[in-house]
Design a protein that fits this description.
- It contains three helices and no strands.
- The protein has helices at 2-16, 27-40, 44-56.
- The radius of gyration is 18 Å and the shape is extended.
Amino acid sequence: MKKFILFSYFIYIAMSEQKTKNLKISEYHHSILKTHCKNKGLKMFKYIEKLIEENCKDETDIYGE
């Protein structure tokens, strides 16, 4: 029964993940990012996703448009 629950959980996680895309950056910037994330205990992909969401979302006006 435990194997079935574990398998079901794995299938759920696999199906709920979004498709990923590659992003090309220079080796210099990659090393800076990698060092920063390693020192702060962060995952590089999650850190980049958070930066993009914070800085690139369309701003809405006072009416929510």
